[in-house]
Structures are given as C-alpha cells and as structure tokens.
Amino acid sequence: MTISICNLSVVPVRAGRGSKTEMITQLLFGEMVECWEKKGDWTKIRCIWDNQIGWVRSNQITPITEEEVAQYDQDLAFCMEISQPVVAIDHFLPITMGATLPNFDGMKFELAGKSYTFSGQVISPGILAPSTELLIKLARKYLYAPYLSGGRSPFGIDGTGLIQVLFKMMGIAMPRDAYLQARKGELIDFFEQARVGDLVFFEDAKGHIDHAGIICEAGHILHASGQVRIDKIDHFGIFNTLTKKYTRKLRVIKRILTDTIPSKNKQKGEKTEKVRGQKELFE
Questions:
Q1: What SS3 class is residue 60?
Q2: Theoretical Cys-Cys bridge with 238: which of 8, 149, 248, 278, CB 3.0 to 4.6 Å?
Q3: Sign of the C-alpha dihedral, residues 267, 270, 272, 276?
Q4: Where do the H-state alpha helices sit in 92-150?
Q5: CB neighbour list of residue 194: distance below 8 Å, 6 or more residues apart
Q6: Can you give the pLDDT at residue 278?
Q7: At a CB cut-off of 8 Å and minimum separation 6, what does 17 contact?
Q8: Residue 96, CA distances (Å) to 111, 127, 154, 212, 239 in order
Q9: How far is CA 206 from the centre of its chain?
Q10: pLDDT of residue 262
Q11: How many CB atoms lie within 10 A of CB 37?
C-alpha cells in the first residue's frame, strides 16, 4: 500500500471506475490518500482524513515517500482564498479554499518534489484556536457557491462537504456523510437551546438523515440548497420565505464548538446587524 497526494486543484473521487460513475467526494490540493489497488487508468483509494473510499484517475494523484508523509502532517496551513494560484518554477496552479499547504513558512512550501510560493491568506489551526466566530466568518465566504453533490470547493459544494472543509480549516476532522457527522458533538435537546455555530441535521421521508447546515444567526441556517444560502429555521425545519413552505424536516441539533460569539457594541434591545456580504468579513 502506498500513500499519494493530490497535487491538482480539485480531483473527483467516484463510486466506481469510470467518469460516468457517481462523484462521492473531491480531493483538494495537498490532501493525502492511501492507494489500495490499481485497475487500468483508475486507483482505488481511502481518503486519510475521513476514511471515504472511492476511485480516482491514477494520473491525478502523485505517490509520496514515508518521509514526506511525516513532514506533510506538520505545520499545516490551509488556503483561505476562494481561489488563488500557487506558483512553481514552470507553472501556476489555482487552488481553492481548504487546500492544504504542508510546512508553509509564510511564503513557500514543497509538495511532491516541487517548490511553490503562495501569497494569499492562510489559516493555521496550530496557531489559531477553533471558535464559533471563526466558523461563521469562514462559512459566509462560501455564500452563493453552487450546489454540487459530492463537491468540496467554492465552485461546487454540498452541505456535508461544506461542514467538513470548514472544520478542517480549524483543525477538526469531520466525516463526509451527514448521518456520521450527526454522531459527533453534544446533543442539544430543544431548538430553543440552539446557538450560533451549532450543526443541524434533517431527515427525508424515510427518516434517513440526508441534509445538514450551520446555525449562522438566531433563527437562520447557512446550508447548501441549489447554492450556499441562508434560510429561516425553527423547531419544524427549514422554511423558504419565497415559496412559504418548509423544505426540510429537523432531526437533530449537535454542538461541536462550546464557545459563544461575543456581542460587539450592542445596546440593550438593539438588534445585531446582519452581515450578508463577503467583503467586510476579514477587514
């Protein structure tokens, strides 16, 4: 068994061999996988961070040594830009939010035998502690990203992929599937006890957990439905104000982060201003 790394921007992981099979997830730049077997142009892999098993094109991942594996697990930084190129000697490569930069020194890093420079914003979980405020700021950067089943990038993402990448950037590993994510964290018994940053999970007509989102402000959820969007939520589920209908039935609320967002310059009885844009988030 060998370890390989994704040295391309975004690589699809499929349920079976062949480009017409279902895309179950994606590899982002800098993520490592175990290679189990190779058949033709395809390799069966296990994603190291979440145990997801699938097939990728063999020429879209690169084998690395045991020494490189040990090095890449240290001093990780994650890209915070929607899209920004890493620069090698002979090419530019656009990477997306959540891409991994191993042993990043603030300007340079090495991956699969190549040296790169990167001038964009990064987040280092070893330096910046996970917090609810950080989670929401990162989540809002994905607003209006198109929905894509199996997607994990700002150019196509699903609800559980969004949650997984957000927590990854804070150094917290999360599973890929909604029902597995729903097993994490502290159970919140009543909707009235939910706080900003809590994860909310929803069930289909058969009672299976099939959707997830994040409470981003009181009575509102950030989730991927057609696009990453903000909708109203209550103890029944997600309410679409355009159709005047409930679109998802609430199943369970879980708390991963235990801190709370501090109120800033808020007077008694004054409502907090809702931030809808992305530009002011990191000013």
A1: helix
A2: 248
A3: negative
A4: 132-140
A5: 188, 200, 215, 253
A6: 32
A7: 39, 40, 42, 55
A8: 16, 21, 7, 22, 31
A9: 27
A10: 63
A11: 10
Low-confidence ranges of the chain (pLDDT < 70): 262-283
Q: Give the amino acid at 262.
A: P
Per-residue burial over 267-280, b if 16 or more Cβ lie within 10 Å, else e, is eeeeeeeeeeeeee
Which residue type sits at 269?
G
Contacts of 270-273 spanning 24+ positions with Cβ under 8 A = 272/217
Evaluate whether 96 touches 155 at the Cβ level (below 8 Å): yes
72, 260, 229, 236: which is closest to 162 by C-alpha? Answer: 229
- pLDDT given for residue 223 in this prediction: 98
Q: Is 91 helix (H, G, I), strand (E, B) or coil?
A: coil
Tokens encoding 171:
């150094």
Structure token pair of residue 48: 């190291």
Which domains occur in the chain, in start order?
2-123 (2.30.30.40), 132-255 (3.90.1720.10)
Q: Distances in Å between the alpha carbon of 237 and those of 203, 206, 226? A: 10, 16, 17
Task: State the residue for tokens 């607003």.
Answer: 143
Angle between helices 159-168 and 132-140 (to 10 degrees): 130
